[in-house]
């Protein structure tokens, strides 16, 4: 190994040639006598000319080999009850290897053939990653305990008792994240004695949100606990004023998940040297979590036909998805936005990057930085469905990860928005972010990555245009600037409650700050509708309704005639079954009442029957009502939109028996079909971190009014609070969830 000479003011590094790696033979090492159980000849390898610790060639009367240290054993101190894992907050990982976080000291014990002396400083602990380790690239790290030796990673003798030396090693806070191989080498005048390759000594090094020198350092202890160590999350969906929530097992500590996350970077052919950069890791993963152009983890499907995979609404956690991907090496079917976000969250937390799932209600899509969502009306005020192409998602989930941004001006670090759902390409690949949330809020959308797209998702205006039938020209008749980005929420740290973080993405609607931000965004190419049509003197609203699947209900239209004269309004009311992306599946209601309004007030009620919508429902049971109308006396256009998320029945999850480590307990999932029709081809899934791996059961038929009961024996593997979560899914009924909280005793 040829190293650059050390600066004159610094002592030279301990220069050891790294272990050689042969494609055909694996690792070629100088053997250690006791670890290899056989003593090699004295001529182990050529003298080490790069070391200044011994002469370039042996003196005429060389000391006997027995005077130099011989390595008998290396203990990585990887058990959960030993010093490393509690200090590094890695005790929850189910792994046979030591897992530590960079920028923080860990310890290992080396047993020699004789007591260690302070003069015995000619040994080093070596760490190697990748297929062609090089000191200059940071993929070969020799760590010396000698104080006069420099190394990228610090090393020291913590304790020396008899033949056992405890060595403390501190990985650099910007070192490569991944799986390192560990060796111990001793220098003699005759060559280097080095331990053989032993997979049990492999070491995982992760990002460290606890270390101030790490780019992902997060000073808020509650946020850090939630966004790195919490395995169970809540994902919000539905409508902003009628939210639903689903539990999710991120499972970042489950057995095999860490290797699966590292495999994702291998599959992407991500250079080893880039894997210590949180920005590059997050951006690469946002591309690899979808399979759109790189055989990534998940196949997106919004069609409603999931014959050849698992329906997105059926998943309960990330573990099954990631383990399937790493074992099959092929994309897993199927996902929609919250599945992408949940699995991406697992990836980030598993590697040590603080991350959380956020939900944006009424999220504008496919705007490509244009701050307008266009709705085309005909001359009578009715929506022209053939010409209205833009859609607004009822909600959209993405991720935020916490990191510094040295590539941006000061103040734009912290939470960064990243999105794995394949919507638009970025630099030719379906990916999005990381984009500074602070930059989005302040309209600084010139900063990388993909800030204009994310800015549009929370700031677009809904513009209603009236189309002239004679020449096809469009005239803006109403601009709704508060519909999109109505609310952005995430989970409260340490609680199963939601937190409104809309103010982190945008200033209050209509405030001077918001106006300044929009003007700033326009400087960078975002275009808004400048017209300000006069407000109509008739207002229209559809109030909130809570409706269960299968119920008949009343749709209320509330008019407010603010003028002192009577008004006549020709109204068009359309009810559609829609996907949560805003795409219409089918129309089940269309009425065209003429409403005569006295001054100041008015109301109209319409009956909606379950038989009209039930047979047309798609997976998330969303009904979208839009009412438009034209005031006869003034020619003004009025509009109102309402999303009704039909509430589904609950799934019961109960535990019985003593919840104790290594003792069997029972989990029971129960469901009763409350409908007048049968449920066919039903899948029930259940899992719980530290308690139960993902399992599922198939039921070919659940007749109307009948019940199912599934009881499963489980054996908890670790103590502490946790959850069991379950889902029931079939073509006729999606979004059925249940959960149970429990605390496992030691």
From TrEMBL:
Ca(2+) binds at residues 459, 461, 509, 514. Keywords: Acyltransferase, Calcium, Metal-binding, Transferase. Residues 22-41 have a biased composition (Low complexity). Residues 1-41 are annotated as: Disordered. Binds 1 Ca(2+) ion per subunit. Its cofactor is Ca(2+). InterPro entries: Ig-like_fold (IPR013783), Ig_E-set (IPR014756), Papain-like_cys_pep_sf (IPR038765), Transglutaminase (IPR050779), Transglutaminase-like (IPR002931), Transglutaminase-like_sf (IPR036985), Transglutaminase_animal (IPR023608), Transglutaminase_C (IPR008958). Pfam families: Transglut_C, Transglut_core, Transglut_N. Its EC number is 2.3.2.13. Signal peptide: none annotated. GO terms for molecular function: metal ion binding; protein-glutamine gamma-glutamyltransferase activity. The active site is at 337, 396, 419. Residues 329-422 form the Transglutaminase-like domain. It catalyses: L-glutaminyl-[protein] + L-lysyl-[protein] = [protein]-L-lysyl-N(6)-5-L-glutamyl-[protein] + NH4(+). Residues 1-21 have a biased composition (Pro residues). One of its GO terms (biological process) is nervous system development. Belongs to the transglutaminase superfamily. Transglutaminase family. This is protein-glutamine gamma-glutamyltransferase.
């Amino acid at each position: 190994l040829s190293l650059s000479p050390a600066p004159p003011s610094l002592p030279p590094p301990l220069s050891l040639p790294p272990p050689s790696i042969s494609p055909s033979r694996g690792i070629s090492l100088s053997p250690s006598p006791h670890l290899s159980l056989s003593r090699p000849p004295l001529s182990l390898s050529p003298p080490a000319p790069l070391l200044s610790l011994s002469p370039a060639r042996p003196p005429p009367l060389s000391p006997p080999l027995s005077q130099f240290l011989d390595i008998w054993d290396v203990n990585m101190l990887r058990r959960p009850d030993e010093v490393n894992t509690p200090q590094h907050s890695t005790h929850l990982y189910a792994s046979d290897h030591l897992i530590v976080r960079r920028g923080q000291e860990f310890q290992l014990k080396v047993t020699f053939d004789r007591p260690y002396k302070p003069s015995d400083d000619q040994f080093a602990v070596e760490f190697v990653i990748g297929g062609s380790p090089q000191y200059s690239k940071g993929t070969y790290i020799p760590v010396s305990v000698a104080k006069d030796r420099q190394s990228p990673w610090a090393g020291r003798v913590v304790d020396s008792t008899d033949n056992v030396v405890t060595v403390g090693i501190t990985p650099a806070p910007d070192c490569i994240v991944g799986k390192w191989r560990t060796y111990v080498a001793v220098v003699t005048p005759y060559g280097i004695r080095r331990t053989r390759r032993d997979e049990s000594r492999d070491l995982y090094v992760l990002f460290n949100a606890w270390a101030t020198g790490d780019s992902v350092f997060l000073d808020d202890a509650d946020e850090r606990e939630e966004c790195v160590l919490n395995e169970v999350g809540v994902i919000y969906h539905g409508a902003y004023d009628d939210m639903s929530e689903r539990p999710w097992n991120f499972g970042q500590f489950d057995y095999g998940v860490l290797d699966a996350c590292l495999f994702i970077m291998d599959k992407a052919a991500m250079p080893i040297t880039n894997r210590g950069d949180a920005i590059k890791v997050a951006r690469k993963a946002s591309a690899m979590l979808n399979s759109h152009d790189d055989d990534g983890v998940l196949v997106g499907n919004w069609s409603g036909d999931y014959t050849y995979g698992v329906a997105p609404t059926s998943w309960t956690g990330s573990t099954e998805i990631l383990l399937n991907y790493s074992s099959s090496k092929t994309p897993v079917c199927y996902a929609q936005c919250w599945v992408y976000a949940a699995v991406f969250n697992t990836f980030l937390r598993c590697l040590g990057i603080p991350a959380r799932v956020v939900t944006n209600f009424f999220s504008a899509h496919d705007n490509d930085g244009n701050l307008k969502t266009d709705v085309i009306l005909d001359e009578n005020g009715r929506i022209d469905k053939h010409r209205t192409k833009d859609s607004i998602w009822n909600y959209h989930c993405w991720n935020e990860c916490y990191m510094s941004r040295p590539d941006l001006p000061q103040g734009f670090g912290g939470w960064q928005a990243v999105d794995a759902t394949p919507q638009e390409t970025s630099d030719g690949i379906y990916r999005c972010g990381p984009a500074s949330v602070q930059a989005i809020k302040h309209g600084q959308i010139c900063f990388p990555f993909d800030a204009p797209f994310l800015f549009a998702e929370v700031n677009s205006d809904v513009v209603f245009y009236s189309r002239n039938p004679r020449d096809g020209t469009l005239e803006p008749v109403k601009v709704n600037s508060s519909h999109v980005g109505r609310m952005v929420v995430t989970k409260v740290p340490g609680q199963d409650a939601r937190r409104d973080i809309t103010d982190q993405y945008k200033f209050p609607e209509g405030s001077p700050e918001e106006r300044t931000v929009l003007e700033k965004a326009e400087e960078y190419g975002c275009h808004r509708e400048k017209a300000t049509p006069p407000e109509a003197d008739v207002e229209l609203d559809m109030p909130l309704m809570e409706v269960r699947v299968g119920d008949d209900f009343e749709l209320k239209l509330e008019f407010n005639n603010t003028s002192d004269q009577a008004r006549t309004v020709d109204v068009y009311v359309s009810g559609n079954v829609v996907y949560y992306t805003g795409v219409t599946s089918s129309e089940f209601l269309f009425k065209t009442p003429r409403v005569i309004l006295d001054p100041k007030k008015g109301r109209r009620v319409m009956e909606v029957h379950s038989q009209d919508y039930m047979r047309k429902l798609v997976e998330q049971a969303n009904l979208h009502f839009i009412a438009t109308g034209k005031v006869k006396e003034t020619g003004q256009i009025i509009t109102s939109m309402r999303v009704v998320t039909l509430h589904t029945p609950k799934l019961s999850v109960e535990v019985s028996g003593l919840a104790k480590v290594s003792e069997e307990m029972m989990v029971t999932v129960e469901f009763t079909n409350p409908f007048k029709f049968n449920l066919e081809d039903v899948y029930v899934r259940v899992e719980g971190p530290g308690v139960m791996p993902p399992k599922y059961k198939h039921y070919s038929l659940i007749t109307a009014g009948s019940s199912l009961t599934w009881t499963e024996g489980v054996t908890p593997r670790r103590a502490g609070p946790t959850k069991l979560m379950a889902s029931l899914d079939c073509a006729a009924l999606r979004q059925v969830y249940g959960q149970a909280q429990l605390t496992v005793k030691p």
